[in-house]
Amino acid sequence: MKDLRRYLALKYIQYLVLSSSNAVSTLLGLLGSAYTMILLQSAKVSSKPTAVLISSLAQADILVFLSLVSDVISGSFGASPTASALARILLTANAHVSCVLLSCVAFEAYLITFLPAESRLLRTVRNARLISRAIWTLVAAECALFLADDHLRASGASAPSRGPLGLLFQLCSVAAALLRSLSYTLGILLRIVNVYVYYKIFFSMSPR
């Protein structure tokens, strides 16, 4: 559907083209996600694997809404480091889930264009749901690690530095730092892969 294609274009611009989010793109993204979730209530649309991925993409913007609510509450009752960290983690989760889901949609478009018959058994609603759940689970684990690392940094000297707990805290800090560096690299790679996929699709469909 044209509306879904426009929504995907908006999301690609928001997460894979713009270097950072801004108020205009965030507001348009929230409005687009709300409209898309209503649109996907149609049984005919929601029975397709691409629609499952797009639905999960739209639901990811609930995290943005929760982040804004957290900022409002924090501003009303005084700034809180915990609330600020939670709002930042929610935005991180939204960005990571959205980027990976957009790449999954691009990969499915590639399969539909170049391997329609060979990939038919892979392109099912069940597999799309499993992929969406796996992405959400991995990003939730990532954000839980970030929250734990932020808590340890805030506790400072009160955190144990020796024994099993000290070793666990050190491993948590190292893992969080590694994930933060990897997430930037993976973000760049996802941009390159998405551009390549749609470049191939565009020129394969262009009249020769």
Automatic annotation (TrEMBL):
Keyword Glycoprotein attached: yes
Alphabetized GO MF terms: G protein-coupled receptor activity
Keyword Nucleotidyltransferase: no
Record key words, sorted: G-protein coupled receptor, Glycoprotein, Membrane, Receptor, Transducer, Transmembrane, Transmembrane helix
Residues annotated as domain G-protein coupled receptors family 1 profile: 32-208
Membrane topology: Multi-pass membrane protein
Pfam families on file: 7tm_1
Gene Ontology terms: cellular component: plasma membrane
Segments crossing the lipid bilayer: 12-38, 50-69, 89-110, 168-199
Cellular compartment(s): Membrane
Biological process according to GO: phospholipase C-activating G protein-coupled receptor signaling pathway; positive regulation of Rho protein signal transduction
Record InterPro entries: GPCR_Rhodpsn, GPCR_Rhodpsn_7TM
The name this protein goes by in its record: LPAR6 protein
Organism: Melanocharis versteri (Fan-tailed berrypecker)
